[in-house]
Design brief:
This protein has 2 domains: about 100 residues, RNA polymerase sigma factor, region 2, helix turn helix motif (Rna Polymerase Sigma Factor, Chain: A); about 80 residues, Winged helix-like DNA-binding domain superfamily/Winged helix DNA-binding domain (Arc Repressor Mutant, subunit A). Helix content is about 75%, strand content about 0%. The protein is mainly α. It has 8 helices and no strands. Helix 1 crosses helix 3, helix 3 packs across helix 4 and helix 7 packs across helix 8.
């Protein structure tokens, strides 16, 4: 059986199609700078217009992901697909796209590699910190940030008296992590 080159993005697409706001927010934050930078450089548009273009592209992308029109196997990264939507929007709006030859594709690839290396580096730091901080902070922060649990669900799972108590404990855990970071 042939494995897709874009398995991580296919898993992400599945999560996005589920409509989870946290996943959408993380995806948006992950692509925002590269998307806007791309169109500021190659379409010569200013930052507010690039952000507006991103929002329009995200609406179209959201519609395609949630409706099931975009499905595996993927032919590109989701971020590349989103930039393609942006290019089509630019053409419809009459923006001229600069020549995107081999150098521009290399620059885009370099940007993505740098960004993903930073994400991996940050993930290693977080994993290390979670290992050092111990329980119950490790469980609480994992439930909140990685699994998307509400404070009420965390309080119930951890036997805390209220969501407020879970929120206070989360604050204390984050404070301890900040102290570890120096």
């Amino acid at each position: 059986m042939n494995k897709s080159k874009y398995q991580n993005d296919e898993k992400l697409l599945e999560q996005l199609a589920g409509g989870d706001d946290r996943v959408w927010k993380a995806f948006y934050e992950n692509v925002r700078d590269v998307f806007c930078g791309h169109f500021m450089k190659y379409a010569g548009i200013d930052p507010p217009k690039a952000l507006e273009l991103l929002h329009e592209a995200m609406v179209i992308f959201h519609r395609k992901a949630v409706s099931g029109n975009l499905q595996p196997p993927l032919q590109s990264l989701l971020s590349t697909y989103l930039i393609g939507i942006g290019k089509n929007l630019c053409r419809r709006k009459g923006f001229k796209l600069a020549d995107e030859g081999e150098d521009s594709l290399k620059n885009l690839a370099d940007d993505w590699i740098t960004e993903h290396e930073q994400v991996e580096e940050n993930a290693a730091i977080v994993k290390n910190l979670l290992g050092k901080i111990g329980e119950p902070c490790k469980s609480l922060l994992t439930m909140f940030y990685l699994k998307g649990f509400s404070m009420e669900a965390i309080a119930n799972n951890m036997g805390m008296p209220s969501p407020g108590a879970a929120k206070k404990k989360k604050f204390d855990c984050l404070k301890a992590i900040r102290q570890m970071l120096g």
